[in-house]
Amino acid sequence: MGLSSFFKNLFGSAKETTTDLANEAEVKFEQAKEAAAPYIEKAETFAEETIAKAKEASEPILESAAEYAHKAKDIVSEYVEKASDSLSEVIDSVKEKTTETSDTTKTIVTETAADVTEKTETATDEIIDTIPPKE
Asked: What letter would DSSP give residue 131?
């Protein structure tokens, strides 16, 4: 039984040693946590202060950006109105020119048709005049 008790003592003491080490690690972890607590608080305070300073510093920039955005919107809307007016004028001008051209084209076509009809009648009369009467 010497060998059996040797293994029992060996594994039994290993188990005790492991338990002791785990307990000691837990104690050390708690001590480290307690020691780190002030540093964690300081880091949190520093982060909060830094965020507050960043917000404070960015406020005028954001207000200025909003002002410029409103100015840009006003300027752009002014040009949009001008462009819209100009576009309306161009459309009206094109309509007017198209109407004038259409009227002119109708007049020319009517005159040409009248000329062709008159010339055809004249040519027909001339041809009829050249035909000898039937006897």
From this structure: S
